[in-house]
Design brief:
Chain lengths: 250, 612
């Protein structure tokens, strides 16, 4: 479903974030992206929905060349790709429900949404999504009144409002404690299994990778080092990904 | 090592000290510092007089009971002396030590039977053919004791000696009744109200204009805007063309509708009918607009037709509304004495403002529609057509766009300098603009996104910085020439300066928002406008409110002195009072300024704390 071909990203000042990365993702897969901080995980995820313009290479999504899409086409591609962030990226002063409804912006009438008017069906959908992540009763609070775990659930609900075919999760649990991390990962797992949404999730902890991912790819300094089942990451592979001095934790 | 360097080191220190001394010495001479003057008796006397006057603001005034007593007096003693006049001692009276004196001579004036504690001037009254009632020259002022008596030595003024009798008059005054607000206090009150409202209007309208501009002056929002050359070129051709067409359309509509405006009923009917039609047209567009990117050509054409129609209906609605308000306002204000005149006049003014703005709005709508259409077409060229063809198209349209921009710019410059020469105003700019366009078209590839956003950002920032560097006081001088003396000119000047200053401050707030929410909303497939409304606006509301309050504070302060250049408000009377040496009145004005500024300061800082 998603095919990344020879993707290269060079930032201003000749910083090579991605070097010739190629891989494919099948429909309904739960793919973990691992690697050290600064290895290019975030850049890779953001290149897929072109929040960051790739320098070279091609991204084919559902048979469409994302890298060649016009601005209007890009909006239509983005709305089918949900995104979840490490720092949740909610609009903290807005209500929870408004944050969730923002997920519908690619679908609704632009003029009406500019006036903060959403169809009734979208309102119901927003409440249903909040219910699904267990915080329906918080819907009319301000987003910054919620705890970290709750905020990330709002982030997931927002992504789900897009009725996505794929979710890009950029270290969704890195700012949460281990218990909350599992609860968030379980929501993602549920979405993956029940709704058949493909998930690309960058992760730090290998135990989370083992527990939730079908497959893992590893980046080191922008180079794809590994592509296969998480179970195949033995100690040698681990050192290759994380460097010779690394030690396994967790 | 250290020791050896100490001599040159101290030489350098000495030299620097000497240089600093020279700089300050020159500064003293340039600023004409002269403390000798400050100690001179004449200066000290006038300082004392002014400070004392300032310490006695003329806020209240009293009614006085006045007793005038006058005795004949000869300036220059005639030969044989003068007789002592008969004096009625039953009432208040004055006696002089002599009833004649040489100019600059002294004599004693004694007064009796005045009202206790009364005070007033002792005047020399000079009679002449020109002034049969006499011209008073104050010699001294007296203060009667508890018995109503006084005795003072006075100096006779240095006037020409006359044979005819002159007079010396003592005017005793006693306050009666309760104090009343002085005329000056009432004027001050009126003017300070004018001042505060001047600041309010300038801040309100300045804010309204500054907010949209601030988004275009924010680097983080503008740097993402990149377009292929064909889009940019066609937009640049489309905007002025659309604005011109809009203006033409407006004039045509005005011509067609003008006969209707003579009839009040028809105007009223139009004001009701047109917005209803506009509403339905807009609703049709809203309900029928397809998701972006999936519409067919027919859909797009129908949509454009409806958009044009709706825009037309909106313009006509405003036209009707403006005319209706003008007519109602005219009817409501037969003269200035009707109750609530200001509210009635506001109806008229509102209609007038609306009627004045409609051509500009029409031009903008026209520019927006045509510019947008052309831009979309340009985008399509870049997206759909092969690079080679695109390049050829660019080679044609970019020089055209360059020429159009250059000619428009030159038209602006020509307005100031009046060249009266088509070679300068038309041919040269067209040639230069066209050549530049050609160069750009050759150098860029047709699909390459160009950073037009950051260029626009640079232009807008430059204009804002330029406008901001001109003080409102200076702007007021120009506006006074345009709209005449008074608070309107001041409000316009303050408003313009507010736009420039606030747009800059606001845009810096936009630049400092968190990028995360912006990224998240963009990732949902929201378009630019949606992203700004959902991710940017909620973040900037508190700082925007805070800066608006801050500016309102500044505007109140500025509006108190903008009257110095004729901009109305309290500054106008303050300057007059200072020029007339009426320091007690000026003191009232200053007191009012101090109170208002302090209050504003307190309110605004209080409100700002609440929002930040």
């Amino acid at each position: 479903m998603l095919e990344v071909k020879n993707l290269t990203k060079v930032y201003d000042g000749d910083v090579q974030a991605l070097k010739n990365v190629s891989f494919t993702v099948k429909q309904g897969e739960f793919l973990a992206v691992i690697g050290l901080s600064g290895s290019g995980k975030s850049t890779l995820l953001r290149c897929i929905n072109r929040l960051i313009e790739p320098t070279e290479g091609q991204i084919i999504w559902k048979g469409q060349d994302v890298t060649a899409a016009s601005q209007d086409e890009m909006l239509l591609i983005r709305r089918k790709i949900g995104m979840v962030f490490q720092h949740f990226n909610l609009v903290s002063r807005s209500k929870v429900i408004t944050n969730v409804l923002a997920g519908r912006l690619g679908y609704v009438n632009p003029m009406m949404s500019a006036l903060n008017q959403f169809p009734k069906s979208d309102m119901e959908m927003a409440l249903a999504q909040l219910d699904r992540v267990g915080i329906k009763n918080q819907a009319y609070k301000r987003a910054d009144e919620l705890s970290g775990g709750q905020q990330q659930r709002v982030g997931i609900a927002r992504a789900m409002m897009q009725e996505p075919a794929m979710i890009l999760a950029d270290e969704p649990v890195a700012s949460l404690d281990p218990v909350l991390a599992h609860s968030i990962m379980q929501y993602l797992e549920k979405i993956n299994q029940e709704d058949g949404v493909t998930i690309l999730c960058s992760l730090h902890f290998l135990d989370l990778v083992h527990r939730y991912a079908d497959r893992a790819i590893a980046l080191n300094d922008g180079i794809l080092m590994f592509d296969g089942s998480p179970d195949d990451i033995d100690d040698d592979k681990f050192r290759e990904i994380y460097g010779q001095d690394a030690e396994r934790v967790g | 090592m250290k020791k050896r360097s100490s001599l040159p080191r101290s030489l350098v220190v000495g030299l620097v000290t000497f240089l600093i001394l020279v700089v300050y010495a020159y500064g003293f001479s340039v600023t004409k510092i002269n403390f000798e003057e400050t100690r001179s008796e004449r200066r000290l006397a006038s300082l004392t007089r002014i400070l004392r006057a300032l310490a006695h603001p003329e806020v209240f005034e009293y009614e006085y009971e006045i007793v005038d007593v006058q005795v004949p007096f000869y300036l220059g003693c005639p030969e044989g002396g003068v007789e002592t006049p008969d004096i009625d001692r039953s009432q208040a009276f004055i006696e002089l030590s002599g009833y004649c004196a040489e100019p600059k001579g002294t004599l004693t004036v004694a007064g009796y039977n005045f009202q206790e504690n009364s005070s007033g001037p002792i005047n020399f009254i000079g009679f002449s053919a020109d002034a049969p009632d006499g011209v008073p020259i104050q010699m001294e002022s007296f203060q009667a004791d508890a018995q109503g008596n006084f005795e003072m030595e006075v100096t006779v003024p240095n006037r020409q000696v006359k044979e005819d009798p002159q007079a010396i008059r003592a005017t005793g005054r006693v306050r009666v009744g309760t104090p009343e607000l002085s005329r000056q206090a009432i004027i001050t009150w009126e003017k300070i109200v004018e001042t505060v409202f001047m600041a309010l209007l300038a801040t309100t309208f300045g804010t309204m204009i500054a907010i949209p501009i601030s988004f275009f002056a924010a680097r983080n929002l503008m740097s993402d805007i990149k377009m292929p050359l064909s889009n940019i070129s066609l937009s640049f051709v489309g905007w002025p063309l659309g604005m011109w067409l809009g203006l033409q359309a407006f004039q045509l509509i005005l011509k067609l509708l003008n006969p209707l405006f003579d009839n009040f009923v028809l105007t009223l009917a139009g004001t009701i009918l047109m917005p209803v039609l506009a509403f339905f047209a807009i609703r049709w567009i809203l309900t029928n607009s397809k998701e972006s990117g999936v519409s067919t050509l027919t859909d797009q054409l129908t949509n454009t037709a409806y958009t044009l129609g709706a825009a037309l209906l909106v313009v006509i609605s405003f036209l009707f509304l403006g005319q209706l308000l003008l007519q109602i306002g005219d009817y409501l204000t037969p003269n200035k004495d009707v109750p609530l005149y200001f509210l009635r006049l506001f109806v008229y003014q509102f209609g007038d403002i609306l009627s004045m703005l409609i051509p500009a709005i029409t031009a903008l709508i026209g520019g927006g529609i045509i510019g947008g259409l052309f831009g979309n077409f340009g985008q399509t060229i870049s997206d759909k057509i092969s690079p080679a063809t695109g390049k050829i198209i660019n080679l044609v349209i970019t020089p055209l766009a360059g020429a159009a921009i250059a000619i428009l710019l030159m038209m602006g410059i020509d307005w100031f300098y009046q060249f009266n020469n088509t070679a300068v105003t038309l041919i040269w700019p067209a040639a230069i603009g066209g050549t530049l366009g050609l160069v750009v078209a050759i150098l860029t590839s047709p699909k390459q996104p160009l950073p037009i956003g950051i260029i626009l950002y640079g232009i807008i920032r430059t204009i804002l910085n330029g406008t901001r560097s001109v003080e409102a006081l200076v702007m007021a001088i120009v506006f006074v020439a345009w709209v005449g003396l008074g608070p309107f000119a001041g409000a316009l000047a303050l408003g313009l300066h507010t736009v420039a200053a606030l747009a800059k401050l606001y845009s810096e707030q936009v630049e400092s928002i968190l990028e995360g929410p912006l990224e998240a909303v963009t990732a949902t497939g929201a378009n630019r406008l949606q992203t700004i409304i959902f991710a940017v606006v909620p973040q900037i509301i508190p700082p925007y409110i805070s800066f608006t309050m801050y500016r309102w504070d500044i505007n109140v302060r500025m509006s108190t002195i903008i009257g110095f250049v004729g901009g109305g408000g309290i500054g106008f009377v303050l300057q007059q009072n200072i020029n007339l040496l009426n320091y007690r009145a000026a003191s009232v004005n200053m007191l009012a300024i101090a109170i208002v500024v302090a209050t504003m300061d307190y309110i605004s800082s209080n409100l700002r704390e609440r929002f930040v």
